[in-house]
Structures are given as C-alpha cells and as structure tokens.
Amino acid sequence: MKKILISTLIILFVIGVAACGTSAETEVSGEVDTAEAGGEEAGGEEAGGEEAGGTLYFYTWSEYIDPDIYGQFEEETGITVVEDIFGSNEDLLAKLQGGATGYDVIVPSDYMVDIMIELDMLAELDQSRLETIGNLDPTFTNPPFDPNMGHCLPYFWGTTGIGFNWEDWDEAPGSWSYIFDPDLAKDFSGQISLLDDVREVFGAALIYLGYSAGTTDEAELAEARDLVLGIKEHIYSFESDTYEDLMLTGETRLSQGWSGDIFVAQGEDENIDYIIPSEGAVMWVDNLCITVDAAADPERLDRIYKWLDYLNRPDIAAQNTNWVWYASPNAAAEDGIDPEILSYPAIYPDEETFARLQYLGTVGDATEIYSRMWTEIKTE
Ligand code: N2P
Fold it and tell me: In the structure, which protein residues have their CB atom closer than 6 angstroms to any atom of ligand 1?
C-alpha cells in the first residue's frame, strides 16, 4: 500500500494537482509572555538573554505537536520554544502582514507557502544546515508550491473530511450531503460545526458541487456560498481550534475537520470517527518555514536550524506522529510510527481514495471574491 501511496503522491505533485488548549505554552513559556510573540519586540532581546540556549518563537496550529517535544528539545539544546497558535492560513498571513516580527518558525499550508514566497515573507532554506534532510520521503521534496524545498521543510500532511459519532449511525456518513443538503443537515440542526477557514469551507462546498476546490470562477463560488448559507441555520459554530472538544462534549455531532484532530478525540471517545466523503476532500501539506525577519539574525537562525533538524529526526518525527495522528513526510520515521496509524486508510489513504483528493491551490486575484463571500456567509 505504501508503494501505491507514494506513486500516487508523486503523480499528484508532478502534475501539480494544486489546481485548545496550547499546553505547550504553559509548559514551555514560563517567564515569557507568549502574547509578546506577535509583538514587534518578541524574539529579540529576550531570545539572546538570560538563558544560554535562548528562545525560539514557533507559530503553529493548535494541538499540532507532542508537547513533550518542547521539554526534550530544551533539555538537549537549552533552547526554550514558545508556542503561539493560529487558526487558519489567512490569520497567519494577516498577523505577519500586521507587523509581527517575532516569530522564527511558522507552519503554513501548501497554497499559503506559495503566497508567502511571492510576498517575500519566507527565508530560503539552507539545506546544508540540516543533517536530517535525507530523512524525507522523496515524494515531498519537490512540491509544486515550493520547488525543491527552496524555503520550507514539510511537517505533516492530511485531509479535511467529516467527524461523526457512531452513536448516530449504522453506516458512516460518507457524503458531504449530510452537511450541505438542508434536508439531511436538519437532522443535526444546531449540532454541526464547520471550520473557521474560508478556503476549507469553500473547498468542501465546491467539491460537493462537483467543482474544483480552488476554483476562481465567480459563479461557482456564488453557488458554493449559497449552499453554505442554505444550511447556516443548522450550524452550531465555525470553529477550527476546539471543534473536536465540542464533539467530545456532544455539543456537536457532525464536524468538518482535519483527520488527526478527530482521531485524537477518538482516543478519548471510541465512538468518534472520521471519514473522507465519497465526493472527495481537500488534502494539504503543512510546512516548517523560516520568517525573513528571523533570517536576518544569525543567532536566531542557529536556533531555528537546530529546531528544524530536531523535528525532522526519525525518532522525534515518529513520536510526533504518534501523538498528533497526522501522516509524516519523514520516511525514516516510519519504523517508529505506530503500525495502527500506518495502516489507517483515512490517514494513509489508498490509491482509490487519493484519486478523490485535491489541493486547494492558489487563487490569485480571486482571493478577494473568496473573502467577500466569506464575509457574506459569516455575517448574514
Ligand atoms: C491541527 C491542524 C491541522 C492543520 N490541529 C491543517 N492544515
């Protein structure tokens, strides 16, 4: 199955299909106020300050690392990692564009890497500074959004599908119609959550309608907007950071969500499960990227390369996947990854499922249409 997966991924990349709790904050930040990480000064003087190893500011998605890794890294290098959380690629971009210069390493998805490279926001990656560079699966080393990993290291990849509770179903809800068809969605009225993420919500609606997840066609986008507006009365919330907690408390029964988040919730309640719908789903690759601001400071860069090398070590990458339940692009980590994860088709999908996955892709000037229609969805 692994072979099938790799060859399919190669095809996807080659043809460029692209068409909570932040426990780490409390554990690692200690004396440092993480709110400062977004400020103009963060990562500056403090970083070179009282501690020998200094501080590294890591801006990432929620629940996206085994929190133990921060302490292990600090023990080994003396470097304190301060985690700050964003909920969507657009929030990440807005924060940096708003003047936050303190972040060292950020974790944008595929299409956002493309946008940030274009905007000169990412430093080039000096692969010669990474002893672990050879650990990556070649499938991921020349992605269309970052040729030859010129800027970033792939971190995790996964899909965006439907989280559900087996208490409600005899057969898994394997269609987006359970969310987007008002006649079906009304059965769970007020108990459905969608991601608070413009591209993900449009992506799913467009896929359900049979269009490309990254369309730039205004009429198709209007149809997708109207679809979401048509079920909005049944939506409990638009939520990206804690939607799996809502499933655990039973407040929501169906969630648009990211594979690993829902599998982690399944660890607490075995009735919770995840499915990639028959119409298809969004697939993404998230990446470790260095901000241009950090790259201007050799001391910050030293810490950054140590951090990237550490996360890309086979034992650490495996430990991390075993905690987050997202697929790893690190081939050398495979031996350490829980066999249950490696054999889970919704994490490492088979060829037939892969054929139904799409990258969101960049949409250029149509970004304005997406954001206008997103506002219409959120405010109407
Ligand atoms: C983890 C979020 C995964 C990010 N909580 C999806 N791009």
Answer: 61-64, 109, 258, 261, 284, 286
